Amino acid sequence: MYTTLATEKRNHTLIITLNRPDKLNALNQDLLKELKEVIDNLQEDADILGAIITGAGDKAFAAGADIQEFIGLSEEQAAEVSRFGQQVFFAIENSHKPIIAAINGYALGGGCELAMACHMRIAAEGARFGQPEVKLGLLAGYGGTQRLAQLIGKGKATELLITGDQINAEEAYRLRLVNYVTTRGELLDKCLEILAKACKQSPLAIRHTLNAINAGYQNRNGYANRNGYEVEAECFGKAIVSEDGKEGTTAFLEKRKPAFSGK
Ligand code: COA
Question: For the domain 5-196, what is the CATH superfamily, name and number?
Fold first, then answer.
């Protein structure tokens, strides 16, 4: 159905594989469009409660935006390319369902930016991260200048963004860019394990939580430029009066497992 992606449903998780292994899964425009479509559809599919994004082949998660497509772009066209990439990654960041990046090799440039747009990142040993755009005379254009600083702090982000240096999985873990480092064989299982735990919770509570976390950042999710604590309180109010909120609190007091409906 897709030409640049492969998708597979496992229980309530959708595994999305970037599927251009001969080009190290470089993110061309077709791939970005298909990815946006998958993420949008995911929001509507009640049976899917979370997703994993990973790369095909054994070398890369994604080695960046497709450099081939940059050749000959006008200033306006390039700005549009950047805006479109940002829009796709906003859709991931603002997904109502948690999305984990399973990083199985190079996550460079747009690949690193894609991983950073996901709610969490888990790396396999041997994974490598970096924003090498300066080496091409460019800069990160899919949100990397913003999200890298949010995730690892301004100083270290600036160093990586202006040197183009790569870091390995252990360093990424030390900098808190990734939550865990696993063996290659355990990478997907670790992601599935985390999502399985989340899937047991109220989908509505998860949606509110993701909204509240995002509200602290300027990410155009409808809560942009608002005080994160204020949005958190507002979402807390909404959750309390929801069916899931009532069911969860009542079930606790009745010493039984809650049956969440997502309403
Ligand atoms: N855009 C387009 N094509 C890319 C690409 C990218 N970002 N990254 C890799 N490829 C292509 C290569 O051109 C090559 O294609 P070919 O076989 O048709 O020549 C293929 O993927 C394999 O890459 P190759 O460079 O031969 O692999 P390698 O193992 O020697 O090196 C990297 C791996 C990741 C170090 C190297 O591919 C690289 O530096 N890629 C670009 C990283 C980058 O600058 N990203 C930011 C882009 S804005």
Answer: 2-enoyl-CoA Hydratase; Chain A, domain 1 (3.90.226.10)
